[in-house]
User: What shape does this take?
Amino acid sequence: MALPEGWTDDMSIPGLTDRALAELVELILRDGFNQVPASNTIDHLVTTFSLSTDNALLAYDRVHGGLVRAATGWPDNCPSQTKDPVAWASFCRCIREPSLITAIRPEWAGHLASKETPKPKKSPKQSWWQRIWRGWLG
Assistant: This one.
């Protein structure tokens, strides 16, 4: 399926080196861990990484997107390293240190507490849509 004209599925942020990407993800996750207001984190991204406000908001969103995907424990939820590098880096970081997930999103503690660590589950031999469909049907 083609994307509508003018749309893109590329969520990368221009000008970020691998080191800057890792530092950006670390800063956003650390601020989330410390319950820093999002507006303060966005301002910090603009000044520290010389990002536009739009790119700072995108970075903030994608880091939290990676965290949400990591919380599922499903390896199929891993974002694309090339099309969504910020979410990919966040996903990898949260998989390595799952305590970040519950520290930033404490309301998920009950769900994740049943697992020692949210290690990625082996995917069943079904397509993604079959797993979702079965989940909806119970």
Q: What stands out?
A: The CA atoms of residues 72 and 118 lie 8 Å apart. DSSP finds seven helices and no strands in the chain. The helical segments are 18-33, 38-49, 53-72, 85-96, 99-104, 109-113, 128-137.
